[in-house]
Write a sequence for this structure.
């Protein structure tokens, strides 16, 4: 992976860890004084996990955290067989 | 299932069928003269499928179909053990 620009400190990539570990990461981030927004990014099967993370966080902290914007897209990734295939992506913006 | 109001003819529920069968349903619906918008609804693991359906449809018909609005939510469902549990939901509005 190449070096990310500074603002990507506010991106949480959702993968295969348990949902609650991402929820904890979101809450930790949004409790930092200089962070009032962050983006959950996921692709493929992890899209469902990203929605779970957003929903669990929002429902537990209903007064302070809002889902601001949701975008979906497609990325080309290299499959196991070396051939390119498309995978869906999601970005969920959370705001404090 | 109870009888649905008329506007729910424009709702496509995404479940466990192959993605392309839903894509076909979307295209068929949006080709009808009186339909210029529809909603994909999914919950749990099918959320990823719903995003796939929206993306495949949008990319194949890039000039005519747009993703208009995406909303996520939570529903309470009864689990196998009879206890209530929460499941995440998604609604994706497609417009012609």
């Amino acid at each position: 992976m190449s070096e990310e620009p500074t603002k990507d400190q506010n991106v949480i990539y959702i993968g295969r860890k348990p949902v609650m570990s991402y929820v904890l990461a979101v809450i930790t981030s949004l409790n930092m004084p200089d962070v009032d927004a962050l983006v959950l990014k996921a692709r493929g099967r992890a899209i469902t996990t990203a929605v779970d993370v957003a929903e669990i966080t929002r429902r537990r902290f209903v007064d302070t955290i809002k889902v601001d914007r949701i975008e979906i897209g497609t990325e080309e990734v290299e499959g196991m067989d070396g051939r390119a295939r498309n995978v869906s992506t999601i970005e969920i913006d959370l705001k404090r």
